[in-house]
């Protein structure tokens, strides 16, 4: 076969027909902000600001062609009108009550869509306080072992499948304690035996991921937990053709790092120190007040600079960086997070300079459009033959603090390279030429 005959064609992608079901473990601030926002947009009450799939464009052909359609008009992405939501939560009440508790959106705005939110009531969740010390659940599944609990999740998924045509799962639950890979994570057989044996290395998020992938459904992780980034679940993902991707939504402070660090590297400016601290008062902040959960988040945040700046290749500029990350729980701030960075750089002849960044952001407002895009792109990947059995979808690194890769690959953290990789993947699967920026002056 020739290379052209084996290249992906847009016609190979299954159409986005019918209802797309979005299943969310952890229906707190991010989930309710996402769902309420989608409904407000569907009713024409708001715009999908921050969402690449809804507002982004993609260049096709030469610059001189001026052909830049909306991404949602270019690729067969599910329409917002076709989205159906369900999920699990450890606290009782419907989504209107959950959104009121999260206190992210204005109450007047919530009142406009109150009946819709009241119609969604989360199912009892799988939860173990060993993995999230600071929370105490009130609506929790019980079972004889982790295998039993995981199969209860599969039963919930099976029921949702009767009401929807395709599904994706998005973990929006709290950050679990730091776990390192052990023997139970190395093969699918070992993992499934561990489910029966109640292995402590298998956390609740892994139960959801296993159940999801067993059902052939894509899984995305909005938290920094060790979940699908283990060989066992990568194996399952490839086996069932259910895509997986990175972890931990890239929202506030790390988003800024992946913008500024590439700028320093591009200009060959040195970096001697980067101190980052956050204050936030939502449930995420409360959970991260526990040192074991913070360790999981810290690992996710600290890796960004090393991967971008490559100190081994640029020792004169980056070999001795002092990088510190702190998160402080401060209840009065609620979901309105503040990320403060002090950055010490140096330039020509080693003369020092400083940048100070104070990002007064809204955590869930930044996360919700990322969550939407991930759901839509993961569904697209599942319908695309050239992507579905790859396992890890590296082209979605744009959305994560901790991008995942195929074994042996180095993750890409530079936001702008990530954006190019994502859009070139869309061009590739749609049978369009990639943009390489090698055009002649007349292009």
TrEMBL record:
According to its UniProt record, this protein's enzyme class is isomerase
Concerning InterPro entries, the annotation shows: Myo-inos-1-P_Synthase, Myo-inos-1-P_Synthase_GAPDH, NAD(P)-bd_dom_sf
Q: Which GO terms describe its biological process?
A: inositol biosynthetic process; phospholipid biosynthetic process
Gene Ontology molecular function: any one: inositol-3-phosphate synthase activity
Give the record's keywords alphabetically.
Isomerase
Stretches assigned to the Myo-inositol-1-phosphate synthase GAPDH-like domain: 252-364
Under Enzyme Commission nomenclature, its number is: 5.5.1.4
Family as reported in the entry's similarity comment = Belongs to the myo-inositol 1-phosphate synthase family.
**Name of protein:** Inositol-3-phosphate synthase
């Amino acid at each position: 076969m020739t290379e052209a005959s084996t290249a992906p064609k847009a016609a190979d992608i299954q159409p986005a027909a019918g209802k797309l079901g979005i299943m969310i473990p952890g229906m707190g601030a991010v989930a309710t902000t996402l769902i309420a926002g989608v409904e407000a947009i569907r009713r024409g009450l708001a715009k999908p600001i921050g969402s690449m799939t809804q507002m982004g464009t993609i260049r096709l052909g030469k610059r001189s062609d001026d052909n830049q359609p909306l991404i949602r008009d270019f690729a067969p992405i599910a329409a917002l009108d076709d989205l159906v939501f369900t999920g699990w939560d450890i606290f009782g009440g419907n989504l209107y009550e959950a959104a009121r508790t999260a206190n992210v959106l204005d109450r007047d705005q919530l009142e406009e869509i109150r009946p819709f939110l009241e119609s969604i009531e989360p199912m009892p969740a799988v939860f173990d306080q060993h993995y999230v010390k600071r929370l105490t659940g009130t609506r929790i599944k019980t079972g004889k072992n982790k295998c039993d609990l995981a199969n209860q999740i599969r039963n919930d998924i099976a029921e949702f499948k009767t009401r929807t045509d395709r599904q994706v799962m998005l973990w929006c639950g709290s950050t679990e304690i730091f776990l390192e890979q052990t023997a139970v994570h190395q093969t699918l057989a070992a993992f499934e035996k561990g489910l029966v044996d109640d292995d402590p290395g298998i956390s609740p998020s892994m139960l959801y991921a296993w159940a999801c992938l067993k059902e052939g459904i894509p899984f995305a992780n909005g938290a920094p937990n060790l979940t699908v980034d283990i060989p066992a679940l990568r194996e399952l993902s490839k086996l069932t053709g259910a895509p997986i991707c990175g972890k931990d939504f890239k929202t506030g402070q790390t988003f800024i790092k992946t913008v500024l660090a590439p700028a320093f590297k591009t200009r060959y400016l040195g970096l001697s120190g980067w101190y980052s601290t956050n204050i936030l008062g939502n449930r995420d902040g409360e959970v991260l007040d526990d040192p074991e959960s913070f360790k999981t988040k810290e690992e996710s945040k600290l890796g960004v600079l090393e991967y971008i700046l490559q100190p081994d290749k640029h020792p004169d500029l980056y070999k001795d960086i002092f990088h510190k990350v702190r998160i402080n729980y401060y209840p009065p701030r609620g979901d309105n997070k503040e990320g403060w960075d002090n950055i010490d750089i140096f330039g020509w002849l080693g003369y020092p300079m400083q940048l100070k960044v104070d990002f007064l952001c809204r955590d869930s407002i930044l996360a919700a459009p990322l969550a939407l895009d991930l759901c839509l792109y993961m569904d697209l990947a599942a319908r695309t033959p050239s992507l579905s059995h790859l396992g890890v979808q590296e082209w979605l690194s744009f959305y994560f603090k901790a991008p995942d890769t195929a074994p042996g690959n180095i993750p890409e953290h530079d936001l702008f390279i990530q954006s190019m990789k994502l859009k070139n993947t869309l061009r590739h699967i749609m049978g369009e030429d990639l943009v390489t920026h090698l055009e002649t002056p007349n292009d």
